[in-house]
Amino acid sequence: MPRIVSLLPAATEIADALGLMGDVVGISHECDFPLEANARPRVTRCPVHNAGLTSREVDEWVRRSLRENGTIYTIDESLMRELRPEVILTQKLCDVCAVGFGTVAGLAETLPGLPQVVNLEPSSLAGILDDIRRVAKVCAVAQRGERLVADLSKRVEMVRERAAQTAERPRCFLMEWVDPPFCSGHWGPELVEIAGGSDPLGRKHRPSVQIEWDAVLAARPEIMVLALCGYDTDRAQGDYELLRRFPKFDSLPAAQNGRIHTVDGSAYFSRPGPRIVDSLEILAGIIHPEQFPEFICADAHHRSLRVADS
């Protein structure tokens, strides 16, 4: 098996699901699953990571760094040389999510053995499954990849078929950032759709974008899910308290009906790996709890909130 450096949390999870964790010799600063990954050397760094900034401060820092430097990450080139990877898993999808593809490709050309750089750039659920196949093929475990994709696809179709049995398709706003507000994009609105809802603000198979709060008020979502990029439920809870102070928040049907939820966006919704299907199941339990009682969860990865909560 090839020596693998993963620059993406999702890629590390894909490698693990394919039985390749023993071949992963380096990871990014954000890779945290499985627990075994934390024993690997980290080859990237981001000054804002775990810096305790507010969402507004993070947004401003990211915009300024991208404008001035073109990137928000640094890569440890000397460590990469020591690790001598044969495969580097990275992405072009989002400059905010990982080291830029051009930087990685340029570095790879100077490394011993000229490692293969694998670009994972999904914009849909099908794209995520294709990326699993891609990693499996590059790492010579194609059959494992097909078995994993078949298992994940079976779970997706189970949710799709059961959700289709209900005529109700509530308006569900999957929120990617609070301050400033961002809608969901890429696979996010698709997950809502499969789970039996509709996201009037989402950008299916396209990048998420900043939106005006007035657009949220106009959409009148019946359900709101705070799947904040890079945030776990504890951090999302803090931004929920901020969201409650937005103008006319209490007028939203989701607020009035107590159907506002925080989820672990970092581990699930923002991470296009095998656990994206867990994300779908969590959504199904939120949108149609009567149809999916087994997916109703109350743990560190999902919380139901009410306006009266303190």
Give the low-confidence spans.
306-310
Major sheet size, sense and barrel closure: 5 strands, mixed
| Biggest β-sheet: strands ordered side by side in the sheet | 8-7-11-12-13
Q: Indicate the radius of gyration in whole angstroms.
A: 20 Å
The span between the termini is 52 Å
Note the overall shape.
globular
What's the quick description here?
This protein has 310 residues and is α/β, with parallel strands linked by helices. Helices cover 39% and strands 14% of the residues.
Describe the fold and architecture.
With 310 residues, the protein is α/β, with parallel strands linked by helices. Helix content is 39%, strand content 14%. The protein has twelve helices and 13 strands. A five-stranded mixed beta sheet has the order 8-7-11-12-13, sandwiched between helices. Strand 7 (172-177) and strand 8 (182-183) form a beta hairpin. It starts with a strand and ends in a 5-residue tail after the last strand. 44% of the residues are buried.
